[in-house]
Amino acid sequence: MISLEAGFTDDATLPVADTREIVEEVLGGRDARRALQYGSTQGEPHLRELTVDRLRRLDGRAGAPRCQATTDRTVITNGSQQLLYMLAEALFNPGDIVLLEDPTYFVFLGIVQSMGLRARTVRMKADGMDLAHLEAVLSSLKREGELARTKALYMVSYFQNPTGITTAIDRKRGALELLQRYSQKRRPIYLVEDAAYRELRFAGSDVPSTLSLDGAEDRVIVTGTYSKPFATGTRVGFGILPEPLLTTVLRIKGNHDFGTSSLLQRIVARALESGRYERHLERLRARYAAKAATMASAMRDSFPKRVQWDEPQGGLYFWARSPRRVSTGMNSTLFRTALGHEVLYVPGQICYADDPTRRKPNHEMRISFGNATSEQISLGVRRLGSVLEEIVGSGDRRVRESRNRRSHQPGGHESLRPPRM
Ligand SMILES: Cc1ncc(COP(=O)(O)O)c(C=O)c1O
User: In the Cβ-directed half-sphere of 336, how many Cα atoms lie within 13 Å?
Assistant: First the structure.
């Protein structure tokens, strides 16, 4: 089975030698005992400083004159995933409304569902959220008297999981302004920017985070991670949060775990300050660039022309769209045939929230180049391509035949169904 499904990172480049050296250094140094002791719930001050320095440097290099990250507003968490969960717990009551990109990170949808939240979705453009649609959604929430229950907008702004879209700074600014405009007195609608994939860019130029925008300090939450750019197994993530949200999140984190592992935080801090993190990231970017190019070339060679996709500039995913009538879902002929040919992808439908205002699309696929080797990528894409050729091609033939039949049956109207094989 070739899995082009999981969001796992590249196995072969995991920094084993670097981490072994770092562990020696951490446990051989003056700080060894502190590395093996409980730490603070908020996280090691040194790692928080390094995190803020890094964010400021990234935003500066991306052209932003300022970045409102501060160490006292930073929390270190067990992966950014833990922070997303705690934020949801801090922000929402059951039945509250969350604004979501359409589609979005499907694990976040699990949180939305388990907390009994209502989702309102916003359409995407090639460079981020459709602001006219966001405004329409906000204004209909206002008309319905639901603004007080609308607590946050969740945005995966760099190489979005699943679509690979990166949000332009003007769209981030526009979204924040709309949230400010529609927030009621003492009831802010927060902008949660999930920047998990920011550092996995291998082409094009970086975009500043929302921390660079006016009004960010009391409206914006940025979550990030050291797991994807360094080693997913360290499970070290972070976030910059406004008060009073920070206090609530720290209370929740105290109840969960008293703080992220001191040892793992020191390993990440040492990787950052010794330059190993940056050198590793360079290797990783080159590796993902090569794997993405392999995937693109295999898709060009073997996917039918009617399946569309864009080449990502970073992250781990391609997002492919088959014609609308060809379902890609778990029970579809396509998915089952792909499984029979031993190749797996993520059906696009699971990345769409339940939203009563629109039907869920069911013709897309997330295809990952993160964990598979180059050979597996070439072979897996070729297998998927031949399945698509079979199904999309046969669908085209059926549509043509049915159109021809209908042209001989005046007045006949038949809705098109996905092909059955
Ligand atoms: C969009 C997004 N956010 C957050 C995460 C969580 O990553 P981690 O907990 O490793 O920081 C992931 C993991 O796949 C992700 O895709």
Answer: 7
- Region of poorest pLDDT, from 44-53, 174-183, 349-358, 392-401: 392-401
Q: Considering the chain, what is the average pLDDT of its residues?
A: 93
Minimum-distance ligand 1 atom for the alpha carbon of 105? 1
Give the H/E segment covering residue 99. Answer: strand 97-102
3-class DSSP string for 334-388: HHHHHHHCCEECEEHHHHCCCCCCCCCCCCEEEEECCCCCHHHHHHHHHHHHHHH
Is the Cβ atom of 81 under 6 angstroms away from ligand 1?
yes
Average pLDDT value for residue range 320-336: 95
Number of H helices, E strands in the chain: 13, 14
Quick check: CB of 328 below 6 Å from ligand 1? no
The one-letter amino acid code at 220 reads: V
- Dist. CA 340–CA 231, nearest whole Å: 33
Identify the CA nearest to 287 among candidates 344, 226, 371: 371
Mean pLDDT over 85-104 rounds to 98
pTM metric for this prediction: 0.93
Tell me, in angstroms, the distance from the centre of ligand 1 to residue 88's CA.
15
Is ligand 1 within 6 A of the CB of residue 103? no
pLDDT, tens only, 281-323: 999 999 999 999 999 999 999 999 999 999 999 999 999 999 9
With 50 as the cut, is the pLDDT of residue 419 above it? no
Which residues face 97 on adjacent strands?
A: 118, 150
**Ligand 1 test: best mutation among 154, 156, 194, most atoms within 8 Å of CB?**
194
Question: Over the stretch 127-150, which tens digit does the pLDDT of each residue have?
Answer: 999 999 999 999 999 999 999 999
Burial of 255 (C-beta count, 10 Å sphere; 0-12/13-18/19+): exposed
Under 8 Å between Cβ of 117 and 95:
yes
Q: What angle do CA 381, 386, 390 make, to 5 degrees?
A: 145
pLDDT value of position 396: 60
Rg (CA), the chain: 23
Q: What is the reported pLDDT for 185?
A: 84
Please work out whether the CB of residue 225 comes within 6 Å of at least one atom of ligand 1.
yes
Q: Return the bridge partners of 394, or none.
A: none
Average pLDDT over residues 318-334: 96
